[in-house]
Each structure stands twice: as structure tokens, then as C-alpha cells.
Amino acid sequence: MVAVKRDKRNNDSLGTGRRKTSVARVRVRAGSGKITVNRRPFEEYFKFDAD
Fold this sequence. Notes:
This protein is mainly beta and about 50 residues long. The chain has one helix spanning about 40-45, and strands at about 1-5, 15-20, 20-30, 35, 40.
């Protein structure tokens, strides 16, 4: 189940997803399309090995 809310201060969309004891929180805002995870670029956080 995912709960989605709006932050009234800066119009961000806030989402929370839960499964068992895990919790994932996401904040989506208008901008350049750049994705960051824990203040790191997406490509640095999720490294994929090419075979």
C-alpha cells in the first residue's frame, strides 16, 4: 500500500510504501529530472555491472 500526500509549503508530492518491517519514503518535485538517492546521484547509488 502506498500513501501519497502533498507538501503544502513547496508543493512536493510525498509517498510512503511499506512491506513487512521495511519503509520507503519518496519526495517528488518539479525540476530537471535528476534523480538522487540519499543525496547521491542515481548512477552512483545503483551501480549496474555490464556483462
